[in-house]
Structure formats: structure tokens, C-alpha cells
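Quick illustration, no need to memorize.
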Amino acid sequence: MTESDLPVPPEAPPRRYPSTLGGALYVLALAGVFAGLGWAALYDWRDGVRVIAGALLFAAGCRLLLPTRQAGMLAVRHRALDVGLLVAVGVVLFFLAGSIPNQPI
């Protein structure tokens, strides 16, 4: 039996990326983090860190509201742990951005 004699499996439909709503929202949150990093590097670091904190809080809200099956890359651990960590880091970043005093250069 040669390779040409083997049956050809039917072609699967092309997979779309991201394949879940959570995956698309993850990409959106990741874009927010990169926008915040860019803002912090080019302009005011406090506003950039606040943008990053907002992106993390957005990701936490998405993880909280989406079912696990649709959460995509937002679902890493249990829902409560994912949401708790994202909220904690987002709130801490927001707090630190406003509470660190300006340092003279």
C-alpha cells in the first residue's frame, strides 16, 4: 500500500483566532496593557500605570461575567482566583500610581 492509496481525510474548516469571545476580550485587555506601557514610557508614567490598572480591571470583569467555556485565555485557574488576582493587582497599581510622591530629579 502506497501513500497515494490512503484515504484523504476531509478538510476541517479553518479555525478562527481568537476562537472564543474571551479570547477576543483577552486581546483587547492585552492591547490596553501595551497602550499603558507606551503611555508610561512616552508621557506621564502615572497615567500609563492607571491605563494598565484599568485594563486589568476590565479583564477581571470579563472573567467574572463570561462562562468558563467562553472565557478563553482569561480562564487560567478557578474563576474566583482569576478575578481576585486581577482585581487585586489592578487596585494596587491604581493606588500606587496616585500615592507615590513626585521625586525631584
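The chain has a mean pLDDT of 89.
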